[in-house]
Design goal:
Layout: H1 2-21, H2 28-39, H3 49-54, H4 61-66, H5 83-88, H6 103-107, H7 116-127
Helix pairs in contact: 2-7
């Protein structure tokens, strides 16, 4: 009887985990690119200061996946291993947090952090495999 109850509990737990992870698929084109365009494109476009400093552009999917001059910033399937997620979620040194959160950026009208929902959207996209969809 206890084994049956334990088995049922395990099945419920597994189903709960899959349903939490099974949130609708996040689309790069529909969900992620618009966030990057508003929050990042001004500096991280081909001719932008962010691209000049790091080599990272957000013009399109291929640019995002190329990463910086130091290597990729997205590890498909692992937001916690992805530099892109770490810098937008504030999990890095404030000097490299993005968008920039310092007095000079604020004076220029920049430096507004992404909303928690936007960060979660980008994390979900990465965790779902960072697909070009």
């Amino acid at each position: 009887m206890n084994a049956k109850l334990l088995f049922s509990a395990v099945v419920v737990l597994i189903c709960t985990q899959f349903s939490a992870c099974g949130r609708s698929e996040v689309s790069f084109a529909t969900d992620v690119q618009p966030i990057l365009e508003v929050a990042c494109l001004e500096c991280h476009t081909t001719a932008g200061e962010g691209t000049a400093a790091s080599g990272f552009a957000v013009d399109d999917y291929d640019s995002v996946m190329k990463g910086t001059e130091f290597g990729p910033v997205v590890v498909a399937g692992s937001s916690i291993s992805s530099t892109l997620y770490m810098v937008i979620a504030g999990k890095t040194d404030p000097e490299i947090r993005m968008p920039p959160h310092h007095e000079e950026a604020w004076a220029e009208g920049r430096g507004v952090p992404l909303a928690d929902e936007e960060i979660a959207t980008i994390a979900a996209w990465i965790d779902q495999g960072a697909k070009n969809n």
